[in-house]
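hey can u check if this looks right to u? its 85 residues, i copy pasted from the old doc so theres a chance i mangled smth
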Amino acid sequence: MKDERGHYYTPSLQHPEVRMYVRANENDIEFRLYNPKEPVIWEKHQWMPYAAIEKAAAMFRERGTDRNPLALYDMDIAKKLLEEG
């Protein structure tokens, strides 16, 4: 899907208003979350390369937390959206 912000998918079926935007940047794919109920997320957080997201996920695993930060970031969907243009 695509709108004025760019290509996006819905990372959570429980919250269809939340969108994960994706873009290609050199040899990486970057992600940025938008939630209309919390616009500060979009305003304060910049585009995040997938490599940085993976690094953060490793840190969560090392701490033994049950949170999975990778759950919102779907590289397969991102690649498909960008291929389709």
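The chain has three helices and five strands.
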